[in-house]
TrEMBL record:
Name of the featured protein: Profilin
Keywords, comma-separated and alphabetical: Actin-binding, Cytoplasm, Cytoskeleton
Membrane-spanning intervals of the chain: none
SUPFAM superfamilies with a match to the protein in the record: Profilin (actin-binding protein)
InterPro entries: PFN (IPR048278), PFN_euk (IPR005455), PFN_sf (IPR036140)
Gene assigned in the entry: LOC116294104
Assembly, per entry: Occurs in many kinds of cells as a complex with monomeric actin in a 1:1 ratio.
Family indicated by similarity: Belongs to the profilin family.
One GO molecular-function entry: actin monomer binding
CDD domains xref list: PROF
Annotated Gene Ontology cellular component terms: cell cortex; cytoskeleton
Domain of life: Eukaryota
Localization per record: Cytoplasm, Cytoskeleton
Length: 128
């Protein structure tokens, strides 16, 4: 399965994720949903917060697709959660990539998280 298929089928196809992106740990974009262009610098800031120090996100927030989100929490070495009004996003790090999924009003943050975690587990189990 190609990167775009993971976006379209495994994430957006669940109806629990409204927008998504997959990036390498160097920030390079592998695939994304339409109109959700997470810049490499935005992905790198998230990766740094997950793996090293989330402190900058407490004051600056999280930027995705040139939109600012309020930083909610970090699971060190694993994931972050952020929100903006009634929408939000989850980013989960695997061994070799970063999965980012967004949810909109009417969707549940926990459901979005669960879908991303399921795909992250699949990637980890396959060495990715």
């Amino acid at each position: 399965m190609g990167w775009q298929q993971f976006i379209d089928e495994s994430l957006l196809g669940t109806s629990q994720v409204s927008k998504a992106a997959i990036h390498g740990l160097d920030g390079k974009r592998y695939a994304s949903s339409a109109d959700f262009v997470v810049l490499p610098s935005e992905a790198q800031a998230i990766i740094s917060a997950i793996t090293k120090d989330p402190t900058p996100l407490y004051s600056k927030g999280v930027t995705l697709n040139n939109s600012k989100y309020m930083f909610i929490r970090v699971e060190p070495g694993r994931a972050i959660n952020c929100c903006r009004g009634k929408e939000g996003a989850v980013a989960i790090k695997t061994n070799k990539c970063l999965l980012i999924g967004g949810y909109t009003e009417g969707m549940q943050a926990g459901s979005c998280w669960a879908v991303l975690e399921k795909l992250a587990e699949y990637f980890r189990a396959n060495g990715y």
